[in-house]
Amino acid sequence: MRRLRTIVLTAAVTALLAGPALAERGSDGQLNILYWQAASTMNPFLSGGTKDIEAASLVLEPLAHYDESGNMVPVLVTEIPTIENGGVSEDLMSITWKLNPDIVWSDGTPLTAHDVVFSGDYCLDPDAGCNALSYFTDVASIEAVDDHTVKITFSVPKPFPYGPFVGSTAPVIQKAQFADCLGVKAQECTDQNFAPIGTGPFKVTEFRANDVVTLEANENYRDSDKPAFSSVVFKGGGDAASAARAVLETGEYDYAWNLQVEPEILDQMAQAGKGVIVTSFGTSVERLMVNQTNPDPALGDDRSVYLDGTNPHPFLTDPAVARALSLAIDRQVLVDVGYGAAGQPGCNVLPAPAIYASDANNECLTQDVDQANKILDDAGWARGSDGIREKDGVRLSILYQTSTNSVRQGTQALIKQMWEDIGVETELRNIDAAVFFGGDPASPDTYNKFYADIEMYTNNFDGTDPEKYMANWACNEIPGPSNSWLGNNIQRSCSGDYDALVEQMAQTGSLEDRAALAREMNDMIVQNYWMIPLIWRGDVSAHSTTLDGVRMNSWDSELWNVADWSRAE
User: Fold this and answer.
1) Are 180 and 311 found together in one domain?
2) Were 509 and a residue from 4, 45, 190, 408 both cysteine, which residue would form a disulfide, CB within 3.0 to 4.6 Å?
3) 501 lies in a domain?
4) 533-566: pLDDT as tens digits
């Protein structure tokens, strides 16, 4: 196994992450936060809702957060464990965390390793229905070596052992408070779930489910100058447009989350000058899936079936055609019309974290219709009398499908026009999202069946490690009748070289080596045109012009550094 290496923060970086200096705890009064989906619990172990996880992050903390760049940042511990510092075992079977001995709960009692062990037991209880259970995959045991040392042992080698207790979805809860809430009793502990005792900058004073949470500064928070705000109102309800208006136009709120609003409307609101739009980018990429198999209805049961490579697409397996299709697209126009601040042109299937992002595919950033036409001419695809190209009796006529969505239909229409300029005929089709993304093996209209030449949607992955994500496109993931069309390799590409990279990454511990392998897999996908990335999609929120310290984050809670927020002078 190769060695695992990750970022160890220097004192200078730690100081930078601390944000601006604050004069005095509570000196900036009340902070007003608006999430247009209201919190229903303050226990993220019992809900997968983003609004619940992020509300709880004001109070509960993990051992480490992800910062806005996807790097791990120590929270309740002294450093991030690695092989180099002895925190991760050489065989990748265990990770040992050292707690900061000076941290106490909001009730003044000390945080100990026994709280961490209990939190793991709480989630791993088979009767608990823990939302964060996937974060504890392959955990064999969690033990307190001493009061401030926790060792997590895995049942298999874990090249990336940072699942448990990293990020706001899997925080540490207080053993003393939740001791009687294990298993089937978890949901019954209303007082605990609505007002957990935490180590974070705030503590709950009142919780009204599906309405509003009020909080006050934690007087026992580890930094005596933080938080700057004495109280928080976390309000829920309404819709994205009204939430945006409450920050950008009226100034009634300081922060509004998840503004799924047309870009021109947001820009108009922002002209009022009371707020600013902030965007962060995770791993979401709107892309064209390029069918590597033949979707001809005349093939019957063999339609869009891989058949060990004997059923190739009649023209999309020609790299000249696929490259020309990509070069003909003006991605900036797609962003300007449909996404605004929530998108940017993208050339990678794996765009982030930054260490995984390849710089080998930037050709797609510049539309080049002349070059696209030349590529097709040189490859022998000649225009017919109607302007549509053909070769050896095969016509460049594409059925292009996606889910029903106004932005996606706008994107389809624009791309159709762009492809007309290079002699490609395009038929557009949209399918109700519930059907398109449904799993009914009998339906001909699911994205898994892929009864089209091109289809478009967004894909992404949780967390910051892409190993499982990149493995989705191994040969054994191809959907077909034998697996009820449930594989993840939607485009039906199959390469022994790609599979070898997948296997190698599963056995590689060094973060730098893992990143190099992931970039190589990304480049193989993009440069073989199995997929054509279009838009790197971001998350959009807004905050008041009077609010300082916000560092928008797609890898963790958007409120992950709320202790550093302050009122602008």
Assistant:
1) no
2) 4
3) no
4) 999 999 999 999 999 999 999 999 999 999 999 9
How large a percentage of the chain has pLDDT more than 90? Answer: 84
| Residue indicated by tokens 């605004």 | 340
On whether residue 338 sits in a domain, the answer given is yes
Write down the residue that tokens 């034998």 correspond to: 482
Say yes or no: 173 and 288 in one domain. no
293 in the same domain as 259: no
Sign of CA dihedral 492, 380, 415, 462: positive
Tally of domains within the chain: 2
Do residues 517 and 11 touch, judged by C-beta distance below 8 A? no
Closest CA to 267 of 546, 554, 540, 534: 540
Pairwise CA distance, residues 63 & 68, whole Å: 17
Same domain for 211 and 343, yes or no, is no
Query: Are residue 105 and residue 187 in the same domain, yes or no?
Result: yes
C-alpha 564/C-alpha 26 separation (Å) is 12
- The reply to whether 70 and 187 lie within a common domain is yes
pLDDT score of 229 more than 80: yes
Q: DSSP code of 291?
A: -
Same domain, 257 and 322: no
Which residues are registered as beta bridge partners of 236?
35
Contact indicator for 305, 480 with CB cutoff of 8 Å: yes
Q: Give the tokens for residue 350.
A: 């794996």
Both tokens of 292, joined, read: 């590597």
Look up the CATH number of the domain holding residue 442.
Answer: 3.10.105.10
Ranking 55-59, 291-295, 482-486 by mean pLDDT, the lowest is 482-486
CA angle centred on 553, ends 550 and 554, rounded to 5° = 155
- Torsion angle of C-alpha atoms 383, 385, 390, 392, degrees rounded to 10: -120
Contacts of 179 by beta carbon, 8 Å cutoff, 6+ apart: 118
Residues 259 and 380 in one domain: no
pLDDT tens-digit map of 441-470: 899 999 999 999 999 999 888 778 999 899
* H-helix segments, 249-368: 263-270, 319-327, 331-338
CATH number at residue 114: 3.40.190.10
Contact yes or no for 389/424 (Cβ under 8 A) = yes
Residues sharing a CB contact under 8 Å with residue 360, sequence separation 6 or more, in sequence order: 519, 523, 527
Strands 566-567 and 547-548: antiparallel
| Residue 19 is assigned to a structural domain of this protein | yes
Amino acid letter at 440? Answer: D
Domain residues for the domain of 327 are 282-464+527-538
Task: Return all residues near 344 (Cβ < 8 A) that are at least 6 apart.
Answer: 281, 335, 535, 536, 538
| Token pair in block for residue 231 | 């109280």
Helix (H, G, I), strand (E, B) or coil at 39: coil
In the chain the first and final C-alpha atoms are separated, in Å, by 53
The 10 Å CB-count burial string (b at 16+, else e) for 220-230 is: ebbeeebbbbb
